[in-house]
Design brief:
With 93 residues, the chain is mainly alpha-helical. The protein has helices at residues 3-15, 21-92. It is built from two helices and no strands. The radius of gyration is 35 Å and the shape is rod-shaped.
């Protein structure tokens, strides 16, 4: 808090009669509650951002595994076709 803000706050508190001290206390309570709420929101946003990073990494890993599976299936298909061709050649001999 800057010196200027502290000065204004002190001046306002000086002007507020003790009869209205409950209002000052209520304002402090609400200000604290708002600050706590903002902190909580910030924490939740940080947690969600962390979840996004984790999700993105898992999606990337899954895509890499799918690509490897596709390659393996292509290789299996080629080997199966070659095996079929070899059997046909053996039968014709």
């Amino acid at each position: 808090m800057t010196f200027f803000k502290k000065g204004i706050r002190a001046y306002i508190e000086f002007l507020i009669p003790p009869f209205f001290s409950w209002q000052r206390d209520k304002v402090k309570e609400l200000t604290t509650g708002i600050g706590d709420t903002r902190t909580g929101i910030s924490d939740v946003k940080t947690f969600i951002d962390g979840m996004r990073g984790s999700r993105d990494q898992k999606v990337q890993d899954l895509n890499n595994l799918k690509a490897r599976l596709r390659e393996q299936n292509e290789r299996l298909l080629k080997v199966t076709q070659e095996k079929a061709q070899v059997r046909i050649q053996q039968r014709t001999l």
